[in-house]
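Sat 14:20. Reprocessing the chain from the morning session after the first attempt stalled halfway. Input below, unchanged.
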Amino acid sequence: MLPGTRETLGQISRQIKDESRLASCLVIFDLDSTLYDLALRVTAILHRFAKSPEKQALYPEECSRLLGVEIHRGDWGLHEPLSRLGLSKEQYPAFWDDVHKAWANGFFSNEFLTYDKPLPGAVRFVQDVLKFGADVLYLTGRDVARMGTGTEVSLKETGFPLDGVRARLTLKPQAGLDDAQFKADEIKRLAAEYGSIWLFENEPVNINAVLKAAPQVKMVFVDTCHSGLESVPPSIAQIPHFEVSIEDFES
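Finished this time. Tokens:
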């Protein structure tokens, strides 16, 4: 692993720049918790639930607490933020299940994607990768039917390049497909078309699946939040965000 975020991003940037000069290079980015911080999306979904007169009648105390929810960048799902409010699944099973259903319906939809905010430095980093000469692909576990339209709007409104030629977007064609297998299959196919491929991803399960399918792909683990089901090999570079000074690209 490289020594620090600034040094890591600087070295990765220079390597992508050099590889783009020598051969075709593709840099792949996941979206959720890789390029985007999801805290405001989750907060908006939970606030809508807590402000619903119907839910307030069913769960007056719980909804009152829920209005004070704070979502941290490292939260994966609802367990941590609800537990901080004293609203664990064990203590409030009916409320928890109802909230989780509302969260899932809102989270996997177009409606709340406008709340997503890019991680620090993410927009400029992707723009610079494109300027270096590499192609960009946003490869996400979001699916076309529920999240396709909102994803395109969100990328453009937040400043990420998306021209459909050198900066492209690929979503799952069906919601039920396994994220890791979908990404591994797509990247294995693309590995035959490019001289060099990089993947920026926050979920170790996906990283490990791609490593098995296409071990030549260079990986960068974006350490924000993940399922906790697997860990990444210690040799893989890790970054918490994309904030880096322009000197790192030029040196």
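The first strand starts at residue 25 and ends at 29.
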